[in-house]
Amino acid sequence: xxxxxxxxxxxxxxxxxxxxxxxxxxxxxxxxxxxxxxxxxxxxxxxxxxxxxxxxxxxxxxxxxxxxxxxxxxxxxxxxxxxxxxxxxxxxxxxxxxxxxxxxxxxxxxxxxxxxxxxxxxxxxxxxxxxxxxxxxxxxxxxxxxxxxxxxxxxxxxxxxxxxxxxxxxxxxxxxxxxxxxxxxxxxxxxxxxxxxxxxxxxxxxxxxxxxxxxxxxxxxxxxxxxxxxxxxxxxxxxxxxxxxxxxxxxxxxxxxxxxxxxxxxxxxxxxxxxxxxxxxxxxxxxxxxxxxxxxxxxxxxxxxxxxxxxxxxxxxxxxxxxxxxxxxxxxxxxxxxxxxxxxxxxxxxxxxxxxxxxxxxxxxxxxxxxxxxxxxxxxxxxxxxxxxxxxxxxxxxxxxxxxxxxxxxxxxxxxxxxxxxxxxxxxxxxxxxxxxxxxxxxxxxxxxxxxxxxxxxxxxxxxxxxxxxxxxxxxxxxxxxxxxxxxxxxxxxxxxxxxxxxxxxxxxxxxxxxxxxxxxxxxxxxxxxxxxxxxxxxxxxxxxxxxxxxxxxxxxxxxxxxxxxxxxxxxxxxxxxxxxxxxxxxxxxxxxxxxxxxxxxxxxxxxxxxxxxxxxxxxxxxxxxxxxxxxxxxxxxxxxxxxxxxxxxxxxxxxxxxxxxxxxxxxxxxxxxxxxxxxxxxxxx
Length: 686
Hints:
Layout: E1 2-4, H1 5-9, H2 18-27, E2 32-38, E3 41-46, H3 58-69, H4 92-95, E4 97-100, E5 106-115, H5 124-132, H6 140-152, E6 157-160, E7 168-173, E8 179-181, E9 187-189, E10 195-198, E11 203-206, E12 210-211, E13 224-231, H7 233-243, H8 248-253, H9 261-276, E14 280-281, E15 286-289, E16 300-302, H10 304-311, H11 317-326, E17 330-334, E18 339-342, H12 353-364, H13 383-397, E19 401-402, E20 408-409, H14 415-421, E21 439-440, H15 445-457, E22 462-475, E23 478-493, H16 502-517, H17 521-526, E24 527-531, E25 544-548, E26 551-559, E27 567-573, H18 575-580, E28 597-606, H19 611-620, E29 626-635, E30 644-653, H20 662-680, E31 683-684
Helix pairs in contact: 5-6, 6-9, 11-12, 13-16
């Protein structure tokens, strides 16, 4: 909204530099974004919020300044001479009439008529005012409608009365497909949801948006009819958006103009017209108003103690009353504990006590509210959420797409898969969204496998999905579902590539998750992958389970989906329990600048000895300068006695302060072999 400083001085007496005016307006909530010089005048670019349409006129901005400066607003000139009949002896009701067919959308409509009007160029003062805020001058009548709109915030429209067909003005819905030529030259096809101003045969204006070209005021106009109305904001906005037609009028009507302002703006227009021309105005005003539209809104209670509690500062009662009166509020009643205030018609946004407190606070000055000390406490990042996001990133990085399936499922679908995780009946929902999905899921795999089936049946030959979500189990002694966080992933291939090993891929995902979580040593050493013979829902000879002592943490293997060819492999892990065993704190040390020494060992042990046991023994030996252990190979054949196997692994040693000698490494290796021989009867293979 562009506001002229000289124009503001027409409404309020002030002698302040433009910078001070801009600062005061900004501090009361009417932010000044720029100041431009315009000759001896200055123009302020103000940011007007959508709930303050009264600021879309100079009078509304001046009211704020008058309140801040504690000076009165200058009165508006609204008087003008009237004549009873025109040159041919007709009174106003004989010249025109108004019929409103849709008073829901047109709550108020007023019309006044002037005759013997010389439509000529505007006076210099009017041209300067309009050009200062970016409007061009057209003629005295059109310029005055624009001036009053920018002055009071109430749009007006003037018709050439002699170009209207018939004496009656009808406010109605447009006919579907009705043609309309806007005053800006746009040709439009209207809809039945559009509201129009029409004469006896056609639409002559688009209500609240723009006038029509057929009845615009020109140099030949001698009689005018001035429309000043109140239209419902929502239909105006819908019409403007649908037709792509915006104007200064629609911008104001969309934000709800002052319902009392229609008559005031009309009188202001004719006051200025009669002052600048010799035109004559017919006595009276044609008007229709919807019942209840002009009713006084209910008074709002205001408590001084509440003001202090909200603002943090006590505002004197006299100052509080002075602010509200200056802003146009009317005091209805007052007692020792509270007062009641009626909001002015241009402040439809003030309906609650907190709204009045905001008005008092911004005028009193929020900069005058004392500062309060505030203690800032840093909330640590949720480690569980962080590991969940890292898990998702890991799966996405391996080519999986995240799926989101329903928490409800069908009872009996892939029952073995679910019961492997949770023995007992599932939790039944009393009012399921879908009839066939009436139980809470106990596993994520049935939902993912359903997604696989849908994709494969629609021609997607390769499907890689994962999901991290909650499942719902039963537990003895707890009469409610126990939620657990699971991770599940599936691979489904129509034509497996020769040489590919989907089992290793599925197992590799599980190992990568375990590695990423950095499980504590006790949990890591106690975890084992064990074959599953049956009852898991997996195909025979494919299933393996991850166990921690007697606790089930994971399951992977192949499944058969009816009607889907190829191979489908899947896995599921109890991610919540794994995260409980994750290490959230990590220690780092500086890299050594010295070269390392690597030794390969090939030992022969009993076939029953597991690599997990060998690696645990190496880790627990606490060898000097030991850095890394890597598994290389295992061999069983002619060169190894029956019932034994050869295990090859590599060990790396490095010192942080010097290069290691061969003797130091040999000493560590000899000590390790003594431990392995003592525990596993291990022998170096020669």
